[in-house]
Amino acid sequence: MTVATTWKQKLAGQVREDWAREIDIFETQIELRKKGKVEEKLFAETRLRRGTYGQRYDNGQRHDGEKTQTLPYPSGELTKGPVTMWDAPGMQRIKIPYGKLSADQLDTLSELAEEYSDQILHITTRQDIQLHFIHIEDTPDLMRRLAAAGITTREACGNTVRNVTACPYAGVCSTESFDVIPYADALAFFLLGHPDTQDFGRKFKVAFSGCKDEPCGLTNFHDAGAIARTRVVNGELKRGFEYYVGGGLGAVPYPASLFDEFLSEEELFPITQAVCRVFARLGERENRARARLKFVVKKLGIEEFKRLVLEERAKLRPDERWTSFLKDLHVTDEKPLKPGSELAPGNYPAGFEAWFKTNVQPQSQKGYSTAKATLPLGDFTPGQGRAMAELARKFTGDSMRATVEQNMLFRWVSNADLPAFYQELSKAGLGSAGADHITDVTSCPGTDTCKLGISSSRGLATELHKQLSVISDQLDPAAQGLHIKCSGCSNSCGQHHVADMGFLGVSRNMNGRRVPHFQLVIGGQYKNNAGSYGLAIGAIPSKHVPKAVKTLTDRFVAEKLDGETFQAFVARIGKKEIRKLVDQLAVIPSYEQDPSYYSDWGDPREYTIGDLGVGECAGEVVPLVQVGLADSERELFEAQLLLDEGSSDRAAARAFSAMVLAAQALTREKNSFLGEGVDEIVSEFRTHYYDTKLFFDPFAGGKFAHYFFRAYEHRGEAGASKEGAHQLIEEAQLFVEAAHQCYTRIAGALP
Amino acid sequence: MLSERLQLKLYLEPSAHFELEALIPVFHRVIREQLIKELLIDVVDYSHVPDGPGVVLIGHEADYYVGALDGASGLVYSRKRGGPGPDARLEDALRRLVNVARLLEQESSLKWRFKSGELSLRLTDRLHAPNDDATFAATRAEVEALFGRVYGGSVAIERLPAAKEPLSLRIKAASSPSLEALLEKLGGPPAAAS
Q1: How far apart are CA A597 and CA A601, in angstroms?
Q2: Which of B30, B38, B45 to mutate to test the interface with A (most CBs of A within 10 A)?
Q3: Domains in chain A: ranges and CATH
Q4: What is the pLDDT of residues A242-301, one digit of tens each?
Q5: A544 phi/psi in degrees, rounded to 5
Q6: Is B48 close to A459, i.e. CB distance below 8 A?
């Protein structure tokens, strides 16, 4: 038996063919980039679209507290994007649609964290998993191993549709209109790689919620948000969605606008597709800070935006995938592992009751509860990942959910099993109570790893957790339920706008030195799907933030009216009052008196913003034509490799494929509805580029197009000789080059 | 040792003075003053994760961390890439581990002591070093040879049972020399990483 020497060999046959091909393509792109054959920005967008991100210090510079040091990476000047050194460790974002993980998937993720990363898996505020400090050359194998477990990293980052999130209680929630998961699941894979989602100027985020009042789906700050609704139409109960568009957080949060009070389930996909097309067409591309859909909706107004979307919808070519999934909405149903039961009174393990109070909720299905593993800052080890996987196998089946509060939710825990479940969770170090309560502070990665981080959100969150945990038992229940969220900068990845107390990292000059601060943001509403956004009150020195939290919390408990929420309390006492608190905390000792104020939480280096880099969240805007032409070049390269290996037939097929890709890239500019079929591509190319002579070379005329047409006529013929394949590759190269020149000529004339 | 990726751990003596956070400024100083001849990138604090990697010194070829992933605190040398050829990998890892352990023992702010004769080894490369009998046999032979030479005497090796984990061995040497003596036996502080 041949021993596999590569992961590609070992996993042969275990990965979906199309996913395997995509990863092979990416691996080829890596090799081409190392040879200098792929342009830097194009490679950056390519890897971002596979979820492969940069991290802090990847420009090769790091401030050590006294001076900026150069990090002499072995690959010298080779980069993986603008100002991004090749060997610099990066972050791999792994999309987990609506946060659902199976036990096997969690095992695989744990293996990857152990082998390629820093021994930690991280759940994000969008139900993704992130691994940090990954080398780019490890990413193809990492992706293969994920793909063998049924996970793709495609379009996890970049100007694409990001992870589709959904309420983690969908399907087991007592307040939902219906289970949104079959819709979220089908839409996630419908939009993945869809031609109409490949040409955005910025990211696009989708969220589903089963009900309006609870916060779980947070639809209000998504580009497209769908809240499950039912309505009786002609005596029949119909399913649909309250559909919102144009929400977003970022530096300036925008609440989503109501697009349709009741969008039928049949129209969910085509309308979302039409929204994507309008965004691709009208979204800003030059000014990245204004490139989200929210700015398009704001500029046009919702009525005009809706008109444009409906106009686009009318032109769409029907796609059976819009409704085919409706034939079986139970395909995503989960089967509990055990029968439902009641929790018996009796001797519970130490700590169980406190954990039960905060981490367990009854499901709508009698006899079952959901139970949360509280993950500090969303982090867990590979060993804990495996322990959670075993818990799922033993108690619940494959029904885990990563949540936006950065915890792991287990569904279908039979009530009688709760004490045993808790005991095993505790053995793995995951039995802390307080999930989604005041001690469970949410944070983005911040200055730990993000190039845009200004102050240490994770450092602050850790300190708040520590200090609040000591007093949490004594806290009034109203205070215990408060949400605290921290972002390292104004981009709001920590979702600070919708917290009771939000903090965003800023920097201030004080006493002649830079001092880390956090803006206090209050007045946010987490309920009602993130119903409203807080406003910044003022900046507090980082080391005073725990005191601010304590003071505000104490005051809320002391002065709140019966049943009054924190948001209502803040509105009642007024932001001027809160501002006084901020002002009182603004003064810090001089550096000579106490230098600790001049460094950030968890980082003894003297604070600086010198390590800020260029963020990659905005991706690179690369015209779609260029992406297609780059794909065709890559196909050509692979054709040559196949020829070298002696596979003439496959080399010839790949050479033709290169021509098709180039023709498709050009023709899409003229026909945005162009499909994937070769016959259509050839026909449309002939119509738009050959018959019009647009493709004609000034000296060679239509010669290079003839190569394409001839290759089309003879496609699929077996028995290509080595010479024949070689000639076809040469002709394909000339055709692709002609496509480049054609694009260059017409680029200025394109609308 | 076929596995390029490996983790070698030295265990800490239990101490009333153990404060993991005290390591953070030490690791930052290791970077600032380039106290070890490797490409070091950053320090990450995971002390909030129970039984986690603790505080990690991230490097290009290898990380060092003081944590308790296996339930007991210790310093781990975690090689990720590069390094010498297969025949020299284990010895190189031991040398680098001992070097940093010695540095930490000398750090007055920590007051730490390592059990120099107790280590664990994990091969974090499931492709080239799967957790099976063949890998264990080959690894055991290599460990016995190296540790016998460096520590003298025989070495007790226990394979830790865990099907889904990487191959993990607990190693108890016949002696517990000082880290200085060990390092000298291994050829002194390592030069820049190969």
Answers
A1: 9
A2: B45
A3: 7-148 (3.30.70), 180-327 (3.30.413.10), 352-427 (3.30.70.3340), 442-606 (3.30.413.10), 624-749 (1.20.120.330)
A4: 999 999 988 778 889 999 999 999 999 999 999 999 999 999 988 887 899 999 999 999
A5: -100, -5
A6: no
